[in-house]
Amino acid sequence: MQDKVKQAGEVDVSIVSENANWTFDVPPAEFERHIERSIPFYRGGHDLVAQLSDFFLPENAVVYDIGTTTGAIPRKILSRHPEKIFHTTGIDVVASMIAYAAAETPDPRASFVCGNALEYEFEKSNFIVLYYTLQFIHPSVRISLLEKIYDSLHWGGGLVIFEKVRAPDARFQDYMTQLYTEFKLANNFSPDQILNKERSLKGILEPFSQRGNLTLLEEAGFSDIMTVFKHICFEGWLAIK
Ligand SMILES: C[S@@+](CC[C@H](N)C(=O)[O-])C[C@H]1O[C@@H](n2cnc3c(N)ncnc32)[C@H](O)[C@@H]1O
Known about the structure:
The chain is α/β, with parallel strands linked by helices and 241 residues long. Helix content is 41%, strand content 22%. Mean pLDDT is 91; it is low at 1-14.
């Protein structure tokens, strides 16, 4: 299927590996091309995260971007605040992405760590970002990560979390699936690519509903939470400790 799609001149199936398993260990430029076409307002969401950081950067603030991939979010935050003294750490399990993120971010205020966020020892922090990352963490341990984040944040610190979400019932889910399929077709994904990607993500990308995500955030300790982004089946929240 991949060859056929490539002959048709439609790029970006390589994020699905030859044996149809999902992988983030792909060339960074391919990742960016793919995700921009897959997630509505992907770049606009980065801008929103950077704007929200304005409220959480006291002197010497500590910022984490969990599942940083190419490091785009730390770069956005750093370039928005060129004079401020703070430190960003991008964490990801994919070594090649961390190497790329570090090379693309020659700012002494930035560091990148290759590791599993579930095992990472977070310092006390002011601002943490989970941008389409929690959905790739196994449901059974999502709460552990959110609890670690809650513990890490100073009182008044902020967590921004963006996720693909399931709709509250079957009818809404049906409508949203159709709208999202139209979005992908309009972005030049072929029906084969759409199907292939859905298959490869089985058991890997597991979205919760809005209610499911809010319950997790509340169980982790957050009570001040608001939606900052919503489009079809994609949602972002700001949670303040
Ligand atoms: C959809 S991508 C995130 C996109 C990225 N935040 C951006 O703005 O472009 C999800 C990322 O989470 C990473 N990831 C998944 N599980 C992780 C874990 N347990 N610890 C750290 N990173 C993880 C993946 O390797 C992948 O790079």
